[in-house]
Amino acid sequence: MADSSFDVVSKVDHQEADNALNQASKEVEQRYDFKGTDASIEWSGEKVMIKANSQDRALAVLDVFETKLIKRGISLKSLDSGEPYPSGKEFRIECSLKNGIDQENAKKISKIIRDQGPKSVKAQIQGDELRVSSKSRDDLQDTMSLLRGSDLEVDLQFTNFR
């Protein structure tokens, strides 16, 4: 019998992120506590740019954006937000969305599978994702629940289960 396998990936649905940003932008425009603060949130290339006239207002806009991401099913582990920095008369925060698993985290995940997972399970790093394979589908499902329960700094999804 051939090996069964699945891929461990970390991807953000760009359309959902765009919807969350548009909802956050509308809320910032309409909310009373943002009136007159020149607060805004918009795409700046692949990054999200948050602008406001004070550091607290910029952080409040970031909080609104985070809330919208959660409602859209995007984990905050995928959001990499910087610190507010002054730029002229306004404060800015640059945020980016993480796609793919970097080498360091891939090695951590592979080590968790080797140390704590079933013995028949093998993990291979393939670029920005991991391929996990085994002869037993039950072992693969045990590995999935092990990875869901581990505390990693990346949001994981499981694809190509065969």
Description:
By secondary structure, the protein is of the alpha+beta class. The protein folds into two domains: 67 residues, Alpha-Beta Plaits; 84 residues, Alpha-Beta Plaits, CATH 3.30.70. It contains four helices and nine strands, in the order βαββαβββαββαβ. Strands 2, 3, 4, 5 and 6 form a five-stranded antiparallel sheet that branches. Helix 1 crosses helix 2. The longest helix is centred in the N-terminal third of the chain and has 17 residues. The model has no long low-confidence stretch (mean pLDDT 92).
Which helices and strands occur, and which strands form pairs?
Layout: E1 4-9, H1 14-30, E2 40-44, E3 47-52, H2 55-71, E4 79-81, E5 85-87, E6 90-97, H3 103-116, E7 122-126, E8 129-134, H4 137-149, E9 157-159
Antiparallel strand pairs: 1-8, 1-9, 2-3, 3-6, 4-6, 5-6, 7-8
Helix pairs in contact: 1-2
What's the total number of strands? 9
The sequence of SSEs as H and E is: EHEEHEEEHEEHE
- Please compute the radius of gyration using only Cα atoms: 20 Å
Share of helix among residues? Answer: 25-40%
- Mean pLDDT reading: 92
**CATH-defined superfamily of the largest domain:** YajQ-like, domain 2
* Main sheet properties: 5 strands, antiparallel
Distance between the termini: 12 Å
Condensed summary:
By secondary structure, this protein is of the alpha+beta class. Helix content is 38%, strand content 28%.
